[in-house]
Amino acid sequence: MRAALLARYDTSGRALPWRVRPQERAAGTIADVYAVWLSEIMCQQTTTIHAAPYWHKFLEAFPTVTHMANAPRDDVLTLWAGLGYYARARNLHKCAQIVARDYGGVFPASEAGLLTLPGIGAYSAAAIAAICYNEPTNVVDANVERVIARIFAVETPLPTARKNIRALAATLADPGRPGDYAQALMDHGSQICKPRNPLCTDCVWAAPCKARALGEPQSYPRKTKKPKLKTRYGAAFVLRRADEVLLSRRPDT
Predict the structure, then answer these.
(1) What's residue 181's pLDDT?
(2) Model confidence over 92-138: pLDDT tens digits?
(3) Which of 87, 88, 170 has the alpha carbon at shortest distance from 126?
(4) Phi/psi of residue 244, nearest 5 degrees
(5) Do 153 and 220 contact (CB within 8 A), yes or no?
(6) CB 36 within 8 A of CB 132
(7) How confident is the model over 194-220, as pLDDT tens digits?
(8) What are phi and psi of 171, to 5 degrees?
(9) Maximum distance among all alpha carbons in the chain?
(10) pTM of the entire structure?
(11) Which one is catalytic: 24, 40, 111, 244?
(12) DSSP 106-175
């Protein structure tokens, strides 16, 4: 299964601006940890297509993590406008300052070390460590959860199944080419094993897929029904003076 997935990635993997393809790495190109970190934070709750232009703008404004650390936080927040979930931008700046101050501008070279930094969770730490440092890690995001749930026909619904899915994903993770495998698996979930209308006829893992054998791949992963929320109503008051609007900045907490 690993060999088949990696063979597909070698020939058909997505070309992303922050990604070093196997052919490029063979020619001597190495992954830029700062650029990969930036892409991972941006793509946490944003599509790669929407994040790419912002990634380019950030690298132009802040060529290194030290440049970002030395910039006023408001400059980072202003450049982030449009990506949403502003806690990510605040953590981005805070993380840059810690890396510049405590690590001499060099990111920790392990999954465990990366996990100590603000804004870097289990998935991001595993992905950065695998892609940049070739550390054998178990990279599991929403795409990977879906793929693994279908391969093993995991009946326990999410989010309860997360621990089990992660353990199952670990049985397939490739210790030989961890970075390529992680990216290949993410591509597979994004392009082939899609949430709706998965391309099973084009899937290199079709044969061992239990959900496909059951004839219902789209029903996996199972999900717990969310309770219907009550509609709530509120009022907003805006204080104006001539053409000015008076504001108060919400605290980070």
Answers:
(1) 95
(2) 999 999 999 999 999 999 999 999 999 999 999 999 999 999 999 99
(3) 170
(4) -100, 150
(5) yes
(6) yes
(7) 999 999 999 999 999 999 999 999 999
(8) -70, -20
(9) 68
(10) 0.87
(11) 40
(12) ---SSHHHHTTSTT--HHHHHHHHHHHH--------HHHHHHHHHHTT--SPBTTTHHHHHHHHHTT--S
Query: Amino acid identity of 245?
Result: V
- Structure token digits, residue 134: 């070739």
**135: alpha, beta or left? (left if phi > 0; alpha if psi -120 to 50):** beta
Q: For the residues of 44-85, what is the DSSP string, one character each?
A: TSS-HHHHHHHHHHHHHH-SSHHHHHHS-HHHHHHHHTTS--
77 and 90 Cβ atoms separated by less than 8 Å: yes
Tokens of 54: 């912002």
Q: Is residue 244 annotated as a catalytic residue, yes or no?
A: no
- Residue 240 phi, psi (nearest 5): -115, 155
**What is the per-residue pLDDT for 178?**
94
